[in-house]
Amino acid sequence: MSEQPMDLKPLFDGIFGKQRTVLYERPNFEKRELVDMLKELANIPLLYWDRYAFSRDPLDGKVSDEQRKIYMEKAWNCGIEWADRSKNEYGDISAEKLAKIFGIEVEYPVLPESTDRVLFAEFREPNHIRIYMDAINKVEEFIKEDSIKDILGDVNISDVLLLHELFHSIEEKYKNEIYTKTEKIRLWSLGFFHYRSCMVALSEIAAMAFAFGYSGIKFSPYLLDVLLVYGYSENEASGLYEEMMWYSVNR
Ligand SMILES: [Zn+2]
Question: What is the pTM of this model?
């Protein structure tokens, strides 16, 4: 594993799941136009997000570059497969209708109850998904701009977030067979006892692929991290962008 650039420690862990803000002072990143960042990020090949994805996984350091690329591809395929499977089974229905079929209750509150972190969406077992609208509302104006529409198309961000979270509900339901839950990394062995653990990154990659495959968007949903963070802080979005670009090249 090559090392991370010192000044690019993440402030946001990523849109989905375990975001947190850190309390130390942030460096000032180069000021960038949103449209320029999105254009570059949309050009990153779908499978080149592996390093960024794993950088958010506590087990990151345990996986070789080679193995990480294999995991990326398998997890991505898993998400795509489930998107296809869902369409074959239920037809080309909206994300909300799909949620209904899965027995999931979807809510759209403005903000999470605890405000110590930035959170865009979450799945709570057994059947609750919340999409927090504050971040989406903040970027509503941007995504209507023609220059950004050229890159993102007519994207419905809350649907993409919902689809991502729906995949986590699928994982729960099929945890004994689904790739993201059955693939485990061996952390240590003691005699006959082997300690093996799931990898968060696999779930996240597959959830992104599911959202990508089901919604028909043309870019990796990981890009939405920068868009949504931009609504809160242009500087943070620029830092996150640098980090993503660096990971996509150094992999
Ligand atoms: Zn997730």
Answer: 0.89
